[in-house]
Every structure is written in C-alpha cells, then in structure tokens.
Design brief:
The complex is a heterodimer of chains A (483) and B (310). With 483 residues, chain A is α+β, with helices and mostly antiparallel strands. Among the domains of chain A are: 255 residues, 3-Layer(aba) Sandwich (Rossmann fold); 61 residues, Dna Ligase, domain 1. Chain A has 16 helices and 24 strands. In chain A, the strands form seven sheets. Chain A has a five-stranded mixed β-sheet. In chain A, strand 8, helix 10 and strand 9 form a beta-alpha-beta unit. The two termini of chain A are 28 Å apart. Chain B has 310 residues and is an all-alpha fold. Chain B has 14 helices and no strands. Chain B is globular, with a radius of gyration of 19 Å. Classes of the chains: A alpha+beta (483), B mainly alpha (310).
Chain lengths: 483, 310
C-alpha cells in the first residue's frame, strides 16, 4: 500500500488532486484509489520504468551551456494532473474566445487600427511595440487569421479558478511533450485507463495538419506542407521533428528552401518542388534576411515577398507577435469586449502597467510583493520574483523600470496551485505547476484536451521552464459524470 | 523527397552496416587468434590497418595491443568509424529524418546506443566480449528488420539500399584484404596450409557466408574459391557482384539517375577483369585497393546526382 497519500499535506495552496490529506477531488478519485493499491516498491519501479521509457523514446530537450549543447532527458513525473471535463469545457470556450479576439485585434492593427482610433488601446502601446512589423501593414492573410497556433499559459490561484498568465502567439512550443507525456503514461499506468474516463489527446497533429492545409494558396488535393526549423541546436528541435513526422510533412531548414519568382520551392532529389504552407518555427526576425535580420542564415531570402503575394502561407503569420506583448495582455479583456462584445470567460491575472504613473508608483513601492516581467521576453527570463528577491535585485529592477517603463509590467505573486509529485523513490510532496493548452485557428478553431502541465520540481519554486529546473506531468481531462 | 533527407537516410544505412560489420570483424578476430598457432605473428593491429585507420590510431595510442585496438574499434568516440561514433551518427541522422524513417527505428537506435554505452567495458575486456558483440549484431539486424518490414519502397527506401550495399561491398573488400594480409605475414611458416584454411574460414564466417559457401561450391575452404565466391557470387547478399547489382537496381528506381546507372552497368561488366585467382598475395591486395577506389567513386557519383551541393 502506497500510504503517503494519507499524510500528503496540501499546504496553503489549491491542490489539483487532493482537497485535504487522504481526500482526493472528484476527477482524481479513481486515479488515487488505484495508486494507493500499489506498494512503495511498485511506485519506485514504475518511476524507473518511466525514466527508461523517456530515454528509449528519446524525448529530450536541449540545454545550452558553456560546454556546448546537451540533450537532456525530459523530466517527467508519473502522477498525472486531473481536471474535470465540465470545468475544462468552460475554459476551452474561453480560450477560443480569446484567440478569436486577438486575431481580430492583430488584423485591425495591420489595417485601419480602429481600436487605437477609438482609444480603447492607448496609442503609445502600438508606437513602442517591439513586435509590430510595418512590413505587414495592409496584408490580408486567409480568414483574417494571423496567429494560427497559440499556446496560452494558465494558472490556478488559491480560489481554484483558472487565470490566463500569458498568450504565446509567436512560436509556442511544448505540444509534442504533451503528446509524449500521454504515450509514456499509457505505458506506465495502463490499468487506470481501464477504470477512469480520460479524454484522448492524440488528434492534435491531425488538427494541426487540417489547419495548415486550409491555408494553402493552391487549391490542390495535396498541398506541400513543411515545418521550418532552425535546426538541431534549437531547444525545441525534438518537437519540430516530431510534428513533421506526425503530420507527414517535410521537416526543412532554411537552406532547403529557395525563392524564385516570388514562389517558395524546396530542393528535392527530383529538382525544385513548390511549397504551399510553411509552419515556421523560426522567429520573425530571422525569417527573411532580405527584410529583417540581414545576418540570419536560418531563414530564406525572399520568403516575405512570396507571402505578401499570397504564393505561400506562413503560420504563424509574420507580425502576429504584436499581440504577444505583456502590455497588450493587460488589455485583452477590453479587446474581447471591443471586438466580440463579450465578457472574457477566462480572466486575466491582475496586472500593473509601469507606463502609467500611478501604477508605476505602486509597483516601485511594492517590488518585494510583486512579480515584474519584461513585456517581450519568454522562457521565464529577465523576471523579478519579489518575495524571492534580494534588495540588490529590487534596486536593479527599479532602475530598469524607470529607464523604460513601457517595457515592464507587474503582477501580484500568485499562489500557484500544486499537485502531488514523487520526490526521491516514492515520497509525495506538493509542487507548483501551470498549464499550457494549445489553440488552433484557421477556418475553424480547436483547443487541445488539457495541455502541457509543467511542474517546478524544486521545493517552493514557481519557475516551471524546463531550462530552469522544471519538469512535466500528463494532464487528464476526466469525465466525472460518465457512467 | 528533400535532397538533404536523402543524404541523411543514405548515411543511416551506411553507419548501420558499419556498426554490424565492425562488431562481426572484432568477433572473428577473437576467434581467429584463439585458433592460430602461437608461433604465428599476427596482431590485432591488422584490424586497424584494414580499416585504413592507422593514423587515427597512432595519434592516440602507443601500444598496438588487443585492449587498445578493441577500444579503438568499439568504444573510441574520437575514431569516426568506431561503433560508438557510428551509433552517434545514426542517431543524429535518424533524429533529423524522423519524417521518413519509421518511428520505432528511433526507439530501437536509442536502445542500442544506450546498451552499447552502458556495457562498453564488456566489449573491451575479453570474458564477455562475445555476448556484447552479439547484442550489437542483433540490435543492428533488428533495426534492418524493422525497415524491411515497415518502410514503403519509396525513394527513402532506395537511398537506404544504396547506402547499405555500398558500405557492405566496402567491408567485404576489407575483410578479404584482412585475409590476404594475414596470409602474407605467415608465408614462411611450416603450418601454412592449415593456417590458410583457418584464415579463409574466418573470413567467410565474418560475413556469415560459411554455410552458403559450402552449399554453393561443395568444396573445402580454399583461398581461391573463397575469394571468387565473395567477389563474384550473385546470390549471397554481401558479395561485390550482388552489392553492385543492388546498387544499379536501386539507382534505376530513383529520379535523374541515368548517368549513374550507366556508370554502374559499365562497372559491373568489367570489374572482375583484372583479378588473378592464382595469386592471392600482394596482387590481390592491389586489386582490392582498386576496388575500394571504384566504390569511392560510386559514392561521389551518388552524392553528385542527389545530395545537396556542398
């Protein structure tokens, strides 16, 4: 008997699985009662089996270090995180609503900029936006959609509600790990799948394929779809290869493509072959040395010309990142109201804009309680976590904020929810986590069932990024009303 | 199919073949050295020589003994042809061609790499070397079996076949060369006849051809027959004749291949003209050396036809 469940202390946070020691929440009941029947030894053995599976499956991420790039095995905790289907349906609707509004917002910014003229979005935000691409003004991509693939980070606060922490609209990663996590769990805990009603996750690649195919400028039966990767040294290379494989698409690097007569071709054994849709996993600035970063060897010269002429589709469209800005984030509830005349279904985390004098004053006076983030970074870099900071850190950030207030926002330190995580051989301790679902939009919309759960493996830590000591768990959407 | 992917898939097959053949080669040497009379001076360093890797070896090792040679061949990451290096190259290439290679191949290659890295000491020491080498051969065959059983016979498949057969032909020339070299070293010895049988018997075993040789030729193991068999037999899958045939056949199935196919057909017509089966010493070694050059030019022609420009 794995008895650690009876003494597992949920602490001062919302725990995803347990409402109190020994009492699982409804979606976790079958899981926990099954896990309890295992012995400590079984658990230790399954944990080892999971590690071996991860190694065999070659699930890795790349860490950059002074000694070169290292492929590390994906840190995986075998205890899944459960969410009820009923709650998830509401959240999923909120995610669709959000992406729909954000796409209307981006399209507006590259056309009439009505939202600025109507003074819903302050003009300074657009004027000082790092990711607004003037080269994209006036372009109308298919369905008016710019961000086709979005990874939205959700957190649960003490009250058990989901909040949006940020929207990743540039080249969000992690979905392959979501799929691999499920594949691993099926091998490690096959028995639970027989007793609990767990929604499958594996249709994502097919949905992604449909989304990409619908963007093809040539209306042919089998458009040529490619995944454009920066190459094996990119931290998400595993995912690029995985998605290409799952979709039956070609995995290409910039050097495999060439633009002639404003049309993109790939170099094949039979000569040049026209490319219709590019799922690009390269940042805007490296995409086309003709237009953006001249030094870039990752991109393809002329690709933007081909896109502007409508000869090739790019997903996500260049310039979509204008909405991937933490200052814009603060306005998303107003953006939803403005374009859809609806209230946001999933709320934002309370956010202070340092550009606003009053709000900045508050932020500077409360740096020890707040989390400060730069507007355009990702991967958890360049942040100040107030309660874990030193006086010197806070002084540094106070200086940064005063020098460039547009570039900083602050949020209260959240009491991120926790879930039981195996520590050592078979001990069970709460660890903080978040959730990144993936949302697709072209002609139709789609949300993953659940998403990628990332766990901060260090005790008390709130940083879930794999590059900084994070791990992950399988995410189960459980139908608690199924017969 | 992308030119770059074609190139990578081709190298997967070559390295896979190299892993299996290197394991076989070390295994055969192990056996051979047990059987040879102690008076025969026949060292492990020959293994390095037949792989044309003397320079690489001498850069890092002073003593040409069993331990160093076996370490160099199996576990030395600095030797680009060692088993661990080849496995690493296979992994890199599979990782970058996951869209055309069956998904299970990725798992199998990971398993084999992990096994080899975890147990490399077994291979270097003598007592469990056989088990270790067997596992490598089995692991390679498992991957080849998977490819045979699950890959559609599209372009990727024919590039795999090109790589496999070119590497195989190359290794067969090297194994024959090993036999010829060994023979030259012991010409003055009394027990030559007996030793000759031992050596050629082992050459046959190293490519797994001993059984089929006997059934086909219905004769005892003799140098002349063995060399003829491994060069010109059309049925056994590791002979030069068979490999060349497979190369031409695969090339035909691929686009833009006319020039290469013509070249291969011409080669098939006259490649055995210069061999003298009555003289298996130095002239054979020279012939084999020329053969290796021909194989290298086939590789260049393949690269020129389909691979990305450098």
């Amino acid at each position: 008997m794995w008895t650690k469940w009876n003494t597992y202390a949920t602490g001062d946070f919302f725990d995803e699985l347990m409402s109190s020691p020994g009492n699982p929440r409804k979606p976790a009941r079958k899981l926990v009662s099954y896990l309890k029947t295992l012995s400590d030894k079984d658990i230790a053995a399954r944990k080892l089996a999971a590690e071996a599976t991860v190694r065999d499956m070659g699930v890795t991420f790349t860490v950059y270090s002074d000694e070169g790039n290292i492929d590390r095995a994906w840190p995986f905790d075998i205890v899944p995180r459960t969410i009820s289907k009923q709650q998830w349906e509401v959240t999923a609707a909120g995610l669709k609503q959000r992406l729909q509004a954000l796409n209307m917002f981006i399209d507006d910014l590259y056309h009439k900029q009505k939202i600025v003229k109507d003074k819903v979005l302050p003009a300074y935000i657009l004027e000082q936006s790092k990711n607004f691409r003037k080269e994209c003004v006036g372009i109308s991509p298919p369905f008016g959609v710019w961000a086709h693939i979005c990874g939205t980070d959700l957190v649960r606060d003490k009250d058990g509600e989901f909040y949006v922490l940020e929207d990743n609209l540039r080249v969000p990663s992690g979905v392959a790990y979501m799929l691999e996590n499920r594949a691993i769990t099926k091998r490690i805990l096959p028995e639970v799948f027989e007793i609990a009603d767990i929604a499958p996750v594996d249709d994502y690649p097919a949905r992604l394929f449909d989304t990409l195919r619908s963007l093809s400028p040539r209306k042919v039966k089998k458009p040529v779809i490619v995944v454009l990767t920066p190459g094996i040294y990119n931290s998400a290379y595993f995912e690029h290869a995985f998605l290409a494989q799952q979709m039956g698409a070609e995995l290409v690097e910039g050097s495999d493509l060439i633009v002639q007569d404003d049309t993109v071709y790939m170099k094949t054994i039979s000569g040049l072959e026209r490319v219709d849709v590019i799922y690009r996993r390269i940042d805007d600035l490296f995409l086309d040395p003709e237009v953006f970063n001249k030094e870039s060897t990752l991109g393809v010269a002329g690709i933007l010309r081909a896109w502007k002429k409508g000869n090739v589709a790019l997903a996500n469209a260049p310039g979509a990142g204008v909405a991937d800005d933490k200052v814009v984030y603060a306005f998303v509830p107003q953006i939803i109201k403005y374009y859809l005349d609806q209230d946001a279904i999933v709320p934002n985390v309370e956010t202070y804009l340092c550009y606003d004098d009053k709000q900045r004053e508050y932020v500077l006076a409360n740096l020890d309680k707040l989390v400060v983030k730069p507007a355009n970074e990702s991967g958890g870099y360049g942040m100040l976590v107030g309660p874990h900071s030193t006086k010197k850190d806070r002084e540094t950030f106070a200086g940064l904020i005063k020098a460039n207030p547009r570039n900083y926002i602050a949020q209260p330190t959240l009491a991120l929810s926790t879930a039981p995580t195996i520590i050592g051989k078979s001990d069970l301790e709460p660890r903080h986590l978040d959730l990144r679902p993936f949302i697709l939009q072209a002609e139709n919309q789609y949300v993953t069932t659940g998403g990628l759960t990332r766990v901060a493996l260090r005790k008390g830590s709130l940083v879930v990024n794999s590059s900084q000591g994070g791990g992950s768990k399988d995410t189960w959407i459980v139908d608690t009303e199924a017969k | 199919m992308l030119s770059k992917v074609a190139e990578r898939v081709y190298w997967i097959a070559r390295y896979l073949e190299r892993v299996e053949n290197t394991a076989r080669l070390v295994g055969v040497y192990d056996n051979l050295l047990f059987d040879l009379p102690r008076t025969v001076e026949f060292g492990w360093f020959n293994l390095v020589q037949i792989n044309s890797a003397q320079e690489d070896f001498l850069e890092r090792y002073k003593v040409k003994d069993e331990r160093n040679v076996v370490k160099f061949m199996l576990g030395d990451a600095n030797n680009p042809s060692s088993v661990v290096s080849s496995l690493k190259m296979i992994r890199e290439n599979v990782r970058t061609t996951m869209d055309v290679v069956p998904g299970e191949a990725w798992e199998l290659i990971n398993e084999l790499s992990i096994y080899v890295n975890d147990n490399i000491q077994q291979g270097i020491g003598r007592s469990q070397r056989n088990v270790f080498l067997d596992e490598i051969v089995k692991g390679s065959q498992q991957i080849n079996g998977l490819l045979y059983g699950t890959m559609p016979h599209d372009a990727a498949w024919y590039f795999i076949r090109l790589g496999r057969n070119l590497e195989r032909a190359d290794m067969t020339t090297r194994l024959l060369d090993a036999g010829a070299a060994a023979l030259l070293q012991m010409e003055r010895d009394e027990s030559t006849v007996n030793v000759e049988q031992l050596i050629w018997g082992n050459v046959l075993r190293s490519v797994g051809a001993d059984q089929s040789y006997r059934r086909t030729t219905r004769s005892a193991v003799e140098g002349e027959d063995v060399v003829y068999y491994l060069l010109e037999d059309a049925q056994f899958p590791r002979t030069i004749a068979h490999c060349l045939n497979a190369l031409a056949d695969s090339a035909k199935k691929l686009p833009r291949s006319k020039e290469l196919v013509d070249f291969l057909i011409k080669l098939q017509e006259n490649i055995f003209d210069d061999i003298d089966y009555n003289n298996l010493g130095e002239p054979l070694r020279e012939y084999l050396n020329d053969l290796q050059q021909d194989l290298a030019s086939i590789h260049s022609a393949i690269a020129r036809t389909w691979f990305p420009e450098v």
